[in-house]
Amino acid sequence: MFAGPKDRRLLIIGDSAFAEVAYECFRHDSRYDVVGFAVERAYLARTELFGLPVFPLEEVEQHVSPGDTWFYAALVYTQLNRLRQRLYEVAKSKGYQPASYISSRAFVWPNVTCGEHCFIFEDNTIQPFVSIGSNVVLWSGNHIGHHSRIDDHVFIASHAVVSGFCRIGSHSFVGVNATISNNVDIAPDNWIGLGATIARNTAAGALYKGPRSEASERSALDQFGVR
Question: To the nearest whole percent, how much of the chain has pLDDT over 70?
């Protein structure tokens, strides 16, 4: 866990479950001091969260100065990551600086390059020569293989395996336990469902549903000789 000084003010965009998780991560494992939340007025349902104010995003700069404050837009993969992209761009246009979170419990090789406004959870393994774009979320426990590239505005859920020399195209989503074989390019705007195995390059906008297991005609009790 981070033990240094809290020397940067942080505004979290959003008040959903991800915003709550982001608050905990930034609070306990980063140099950022969370000073409040901001939500678009049409979705503003409360004025306080964790004892901190929730401001209308349209007028947030009247309450929190952009000049000395960073932000993180804590949105998931809604509209193939475009909602997170839009609010990230709105906050930047107001003068706030984008913050990133990289868990102290993630393994990130020293020569990995990473853009701005990324969120990398615990137990991610990111191998040598990986390139990560901006506005990327890597949830817990993923393996990102050597020489792979993750483009902007991507969301990778937990325990996915991206093998070596892969590319994940912009705005794509990779689901829980998905596996991507070596030297595979995932085109932009792909949805790779949970448990899917991808062994060939994909086309833009493709949607893959993961394999589904069905009950066998033989029961588990019979299979293992349980009476």
Answer: 98
